Amino acid sequence: MEQKNQHNGGFGNGFVLGLLIGVVGTLLVTTKRGRELVKEFTEKGMDKFSDFETKIKETTENVVRAEEDFEEVDDESEYVEPQKRPAPVRLSEERSERKEPEQKSSKVRRFFTKKK
């Protein structure tokens, strides 16, 4: 039996990806323009993060207020009594009480008949 190596260039793909990430990281850290970009991204990121944090706090406060309002509602004044239902009747009891007429058996029509 012949065994085939089915790696499909996984090592080569990983090597190229690592090489690209390394080059981009090196350019961001070692060049003046790269350091400026990193500084700009971190400042904008912190601004967005602080905006996100304030939105979360506002939402949390709104949820707490809504929960308190919900607890203040007087549930007893709006209570509606459930309607009483009749007791369930079993089919066998229902048939015996009604005494339905027996159904006449209809002749079954067959497409293919048995040969005698």
Task: Walk me through this protein's architecture.
With 116 residues, this protein is mostly helical. The protein is built from 3 helices and no strands. It has helices at 10-30, 32-72, 91-98. Helix 1 packs across helix 2. The longest helix has 41 residues, at 32-72.
Features:
mainly alpha, 116 residues
Write a brief structural summary.
With 116 residues, the protein is an all-alpha fold.
Structural class: mainly alpha
Radius of gyration: 39 Å
- Name the beta content range: under 5%
- List segments where confidence is low: pLDDT < 50 over at least 5 consecutive residues: none
Could you spell the SSE succession in H and E letters? Answer: HHH
Number of helices: 3
Helix content: 55-70%
Query: Using DSSP, what is the number of strands?
Result: 0
Give the topology, please:
Layout: H1 10-30, H2 32-72, H3 91-98
Helix pairs in contact: 1-2
